[in-house]
Design brief:
There is one protein chain. By secondary structure, this protein is of the alpha/beta class. Helix content is 40%, strand content 12%. The protein has a single domain, classed as TIM Barrel (Alpha-Beta Barrel). The protein has 11 helices and 8 strands. The strands form 2 sheets. Strands 1, 2, 3, 4, 7 and 8 form a 6-stranded mixed beta sheet that branches. A two-stranded antiparallel sheet has the order 5-6. Helix 5 packs parallel to helix 10. 34% of the residues are buried. The structure holds zinc ion (ZN).
Length: 341
């Protein structure tokens, strides 16, 4: 059998018997349903874009997926023509405490819309129309939350970061608890979790949108859980730290336009070869993220094997992609294009 034939017959065997309905999705936050009403929002997305799947922002403290349009960006041609200047964020559904026995982070209800439970409000109406509902939640937090310090990553300098650590059992317990809560408490079709961030090496270089101003010394994670797990994997933590201090010097010198004698490319390669621990730590973080994906996946499937599980993944190139998009109707219902650096 020729390779091409083998491939096509293998793929045919993998294909579902009946072609699945094409997913046309949109991300939409609680505030849109508050501002415009559940039925009008569903009318709008069905009539104007044939949307059949709602990615409802159920949890975030960020402005990328919840809240009204980001101040300074053009407002959408529907909904309230105002910005929400007191956005807080959190969980936009009722918190069922029985799912949070494995975390100290339990007080995360979004205060923005009182007792409004976005899944409770939207699910029956969406179901009637044959629309699917996916919980869309991401790991964006703020500093002023009860017990949040106990879940945060530690920077190389010992300070807490605003990001949370995947190897921290309280963060893992929170994520699996939240997943279980969504899948057990509501007849949702799926969950999508996103971690819109990256590892230490990339952060030190500022290799992200808006990353050029990032402090190259503020790399993570050096918390007790990561250090213990890293050592158990045979990673020399002292060498990791030395490597990142050297990388910090390299980045600072470059930003001060002090070009290395052998050039940036060669000097960076030399650093990576002298301190392979830089890359080991980069992979360690990525592996920990993947373990988190696995924990969420297994939790969701255990709660309901029919539920779909997916990820929003960190897109380093999002700056150009988003800047080239029309402003009026962007990636989400409120017409937002996230502010890029
Ligand atoms: Zn950590």
């Amino acid at each position: 059998m020729q390779r091409r034939n083998f491939l096509s017959s293998s793929l045919a065997a993998l294909a579902p018997a009946a072609p699945a309905k094409k997913m046309i999705g949109i991300q939409v936050g609680a505030v849109s349903f508050m501002d415009e009403g559940v039925e009008p929002v569903l009318d709008n997305v069905q009539q104007r874009a044939h949307v059949n799947t709602l990615f409802i922002a159920t949890f975030t403290y960020g402005r990328g997926i919840a809240g009204r349009q980001v101040p300074g960006q053009p407002l959408a041609d529907h909904g309230k023509q105002e910005y929400d200047l007191n956005y807080h964020g959190g969980n936009y559904t009722v918190i069922h405490p029985q799912y949070y026995g494995s975390t100290v982070f339990r007080d995360f209800r979004a205060p923005d819309h009182g007792d409004f439970d976005v899944l409770d409000a939207v699910l029956p109406a969406a179901r009637k129309r044959g629309m699917r509902v996916i919980c869309w939640y991401e790991d964006v937090f703020r500093n002023d939350l009860p017990n949040i310090g106990r879940l945060q990553e530690k920077e190389l300098n010992g300070r807490n970061a605003t990001t949370l650590c995947f190897n921290n059992p309280d963060y893992r317990g929170f994520l699996t608890g939240l997943t279980e809560d969504y899948v057990h408490s509501y007849p949702v079709d799926g969950v999508m979790w996103g971690s819109d961030r990256q590892e230490a090496f990339s952060n030190a270089l500022g290799a992200s949108h808006g990353g050029a101003g990032r402090d190259p010394g503020r790399v993570t994670c050096f918390c007790e859980f990561c250090l213990k797990k890293g050592r158990a994997k045979g990673i020399n933590i002292d060498r990791v730290k030395q490597g990142y201090l050297e990388l910090e010097k390299f980045v600072r010198a470059g930003r001060a336009r002090r070009r290395p004698v052998d050039g940036y490319y060669v000097t960076l390669w030399r650093l990576m070869l002298r301190y392979p621990e830089l890359l080991a730590w980069e992979m360690f973080w990525t592996d920990s993220l993947r373990e988190t994906y696995q924990a969420i996946y297994e939790t969701a499937k255990k709660a309901n094997p029919n539920v779909e599980v997916g990820w929003h993944i960190w897109a380093r190139g999002m700056r150009c992609w988003r800047r080239s998009r029309p402003v009026r109707m962007g990636c989400c219902y409120r017409g937002s294009i996230p502010r890029c650096g």
